[in-house]
Amino acid sequence: MIQYKKEPQEIKIAVPNGNYKVTLNITAQSDTRYTVYSQNRRFVAVDRVIRAGETQNLTFVVNVCDYIRRDAAYTVDSIQIYIVCDEELSVTSEYVPVNVPTLYIIGDSTITDQPAEYPYDPEKTYCGWGQVLPMLLDDQIAVSNHAESGATTREAFQVHFETMRRKLRPGDYLMIEFGHNDQKETELDAFGGYARYLRWFVDYAKVRAVRTIINAPINRIIFDENGKILNLLGDYRNAAKEVSEWGHVPFIDLWTATTDFFEPLGLYTAKKYFRHDSESQDYTHTNDLGGAIIARLWASMAARAGIKGLSEHILTDRLTIEEIKVDPNAPKESNAQEFARLKSIGLGIVPADLDADISHL
Question: β-strands 251-252, 211-215: how paired?
């Protein structure tokens, strides 16, 4: 992903809630690249090359849906398209309502739609991996992301799920990923409150012929002195798997996938895929680079899982993850040493317990 200097070009089309197939006709005056997002920065196309005088057609599905956050209910009354490019583009748009299944997402900050600041830098931008999924699916399924930063299974049950109660239809999907915030509350322990709420969601969806997908939470990249990622969310992974087996619903093991992917890279390389800038380093939340990697890990596993009505709509030709080469001259720093380094230059406080949540270091 490249950096962009300009603010996005916006297109808004007033429509009621629903799914829409949108076609953009994009013409360039000079050779350039562009990126397209829909709604709350859901990825449609990234860094597409277009030549001077060329017109490209881009077709995709947009879900327009009201949503609820802990502070308020929000009405969404338009298709929202954002085109990021540093050169001039001429863009026209067309749309038509479509009757396709919707993949509804509930979860926390690691999967939610995250905004970006401009000038844009993919390494400095938070990205929930769920917002990358539309780019990896064809135009026969829509994505509606209702995940919320800081959310637990209990809060989703009490607040965020309310909009979906009125929207879920037979044949839709409900995808669930929690753990990072449940872990902070004793009553939401892995095999207690957390598992109980997961079972409630499975039961609710099953009665309505909605198909549930349970994800294990992604792991934090907190390394020990031996270069191994600490097992901070393993119990939540195991509880999620148990609930999926109990409910006979698909289970996507992102805890294992993210551990296996980032651990061989070591802290020095792995942290580049989590949100950072000159003043801070996050070990829980991916940036746009890391979010795209985890979305592809999920899509690859979901394609192999043979999820009826979903797996066949995954664009397998878009799942390749570019090889990440570890710098042989990279310092052999442990996680504790990295915290000490950050503290020495005034960038945060070394936690007494490395198992503590350090999302906001």
Answer: parallel
